[in-house]
Amino acid sequence: MTVDITAAPLKVAIVGGGPGGLATAIALQKIPSVEVTIYEQASVLREVGAGISIGANSWKVLELLGVADQVNTGHETYTVLNLNGRSGEEVHRREKPHSATGRPPIRTQRTKLQSALLSAVRPGTIKLSKKLVKMEDQGAKGISLTFKDGTSSVVDLVVGADGIRSVVRDTAFPAYPDTLKFTGTTIWRTLLPWSAVSDLDPRFGTTAWWHTPTTHVYFSPVGEGLWEIAARAWHDPAVHSASKVSWGVPVTNEHVESHFTEYLPQIREALARVSAGGWREFAAFAGPEIPTLTAWSNRVVLVGDSSHALSGAFGSGAGFAMEDGWILARALAYYANDTGRALSLFNEIRLPYYARMYEYLASEAARRAKKLADIGDPTFDERVRGKVISDGGGGLDWIYQNDIEAVWKTAVGYGPTDTSNFGPIHASI
Ligand SMILES: Cc1cc2nc3c(=O)[nH]c(=O)nc-3n(C[C@H](O)[C@H](O)[C@H](O)COP(=O)(O)OP(=O)(O)OC[C@H]3O[C@@H](n4cnc5c(N)ncnc54)[C@H](O)[C@@H]3O)c2cc1C
């Protein structure tokens, strides 16, 4: 199916207005003969959570989307530390190499990324208060979407950018539903003024993870005089999963602090200085690998968290979601809106990438377990040393230095220095 410009434009519905949905819309807007609408369940687009890391892979796709300069503040994370939260011992220091792109790795506020993306989405593209409740394949007519407010729409292509609890995935990939499981990790996140804690420890000005064997507290400046805490604790999911559905819900200071009583006094004091009502709780869920990213004869495709419920395992999920959106648009442009061929190519490029992440996580879990087993009966400090988070190091350049433009060019047989339009220009567009 090759679409020419005299034909009706390809009607694309993006379900979800997170980083994946917004990036997909921006990328699709740049190609001809595509009509894009984002359907978002929220009545107001707002980001919950606190900070977000932007490294070389995310910068690359933000540049391709034309919004990198809009993400204009943040804290440079060239140095990251791992410390023992009970003794203060520095167990690992990573000094990141300076990037050839000239854009430093940063920790910034999640709202900065969202505003940058929003600024590039064409006005009128986003429809709010549109919670997808039903999706049906109507054959040649298209795919019908029904929203909670009773309205509906029929489109040619549905992009499921509706996050980890994706209705699009659960409808179009029936083998997958109900497989999400609480990982055992609960995260509490907040932002507070740096001035509120700067007297406590000079190391708090450096991005760092402070650990005990089953918890950690992440401290980082995020720019504009703000400072982030993301504190995590692990509980046996077999015992706690029933009560865990929370995502961004307010919790009391006492509740958060009760998980971090073993820490150094200055860390406990930093937690105590969070204003009442400042904490939000996030329970991390994960799901298995999905065998394909496309369904319903290549008229449904998943981008971002909906397709890989990795629970923020690599701290770069927004980057992955944006890369998905950019590749999808490139593939549609390349095949002149032939969704069959474009989505097959998208699947060929992105599915193995996510498969590699699942494989890495499984081997890493096995490696860590073996290391601890080899020690026999590890002490508190030995267990802490086994928990180092390398933030982009550790042989993960294929993620953190990923150049999605080079990936595309390789996939379609173009050389890395080729600056042509990434593929054949079809006469019809
Ligand atoms: C604790 C934590 C820390 C993280 N840190 C980082 C980091 O530092 N860097 C990074 O790059 N990534 C990070 N991530 C991952 C990142 O937040 C996610 O991977 C990213 O938000 C995924 O984007 P998305 O657009 O796929 O989904 P989401 O951001 O989940 O957006 C989905 C959207 O779909 C909407 N939606 C859902 N269901 C429906 C429906 N039925 N109808 C209509 N709309 C619907 C939702 O309201 C939401 O707006 C972190 C994740 C976690 C949990």
Automatic annotation (TrEMBL):
It comes from the Eukaryota. InterPro entries: FAD-bd, FAD/NAD-bd_sf, FAD_monoxygenase. This is FAD/NAD(P)-binding domain-containing protein. Residues 86-105 are annotated as: Disordered. Keywords: FAD, Flavoprotein, Oxidoreductase. One of its GO terms (molecular function) is FAD binding. One of its GO terms (biological process) is secondary metabolite biosynthetic process. Residues 11-341 form the FAD-binding domain.
